[in-house]
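Researcher: Please predict.
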Amino acid sequence: MSILEDVLLNARTAVDTVGKKAGQVIDVSKLRIAAADLKSDISRKYQILGRVAYEEAITGKDYSANKAELIEKIGELKGELESVMELIASSGNKIKCTACGAYNSKKAVFCNKCGEKLDTSEDEHMPTDDMIDFTEDNFEDDDLL
């Protein structure tokens, strides 16, 4: 193989690698948008649930069926959000606390939310992708209320 062919082969390999990384970043961006949309939907359902509970208390009417439906929908949305967050975490450098479910850096020894000792066995770690920036509040349930 000539030097020129070798350079072209290396260039093609580099382009393929960069293309795959760009695709991963775009996929994670789409997942983050989906997570934000789900959080927004959950917040709206909580607001509606609060209004229904208020109206029930004020008027004395029974809105049990409406409340049950909203609670079920919130549960479904939270399940979807958890799935999306798992996908995002699997693209990054995070491990999930088995005690509270918070996501932590794979280098962490203790959970930054509950203080539980993290399982640091290799099979629990998420793959590394240095291009993705995770922040702790992306994985908190507190901002859903």
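Model: The longest helix spans residues 3-59.
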